[in-house]
Write a structure and sequence with these properties.
The protein is an all-alpha fold. It has seven helices and no strands. It has helices at 9-43, 53-56, 59-73, 87-96, 101-110, 129-136, 142-154. The radius of gyration is 18 Å and the shape is globular.
Length: 160
């Protein structure tokens, strides 16, 4: 991240935008984790009424659980790595600072992306378009994307 100086107000805007993107990525990660945990507790038969009242009435918590139910009900779940992370978790993890550049590049270079001929319902959540969209949003740099593509090409993997 660049350090803005008073003489460079545009750099200050870019810095603030990047900071906001990092924080939003961290919130998305936390909400997906909360949704997965709530759904797992529900499926395990846990008495959710024992949770703190603030959590039970939290609209974000309920929305996160509902989104996870929708994903689980889909004909084909998004692909995940050995740790259960989905592609968006890797991108958001990097943007939020939870993953180093080296970790994110390695994971994204080896990711089993779906190609346009795969299940169309998951086309956007599991395709290389997620990486391109993350670059457009400032969550990945163009250098990051170029390195991911270079590594995929070197490993004979299709970037789709």
């Amino acid at each position: 991240m660049t350090s803005a100086t008073p003489s460079d107000p545009l750099a200050a805007v870019v810095d603030a935008w990047r900071l906001r993107a990092r924080h939003q990525a961290a919130v998305r990660l936390a909400e997906r984790r909360l949704g997965r945990a709530l759904l797992a507790a529900e499926r395990a038969g846990a008495d959710l009424r024992r949770l703190p009242t603030a959590l039970l009435v939290d609209d974000h918590a309920q929305c996160a659980a509902d989104q996870q139910r929708t994903i689980d009900a889909a004909a084909q779940r998004p692909r995940s790595d050995r740790e259960g992370r989905e592609l968006v978790d890797v991108v958001d993890g990097y943007a939020a600072g939870a993953l180093s550049r080296a970790e994110a590049i390695e994971l994204l270079a080896r990711w089993p992306y779906r190609t346009p001929g795969d299940d169309e319902a998951q086309g956007l959540t599991d395709s290389f378009a997620v990486v391109d969209a993350a670059a457009d949003a400032g969550m990945l740099s163009r250098d990051d994307v170029a390195e991911i593509r270079r590594r995929r090409a070197a490993g004979s993997l299709r970037p789709s």
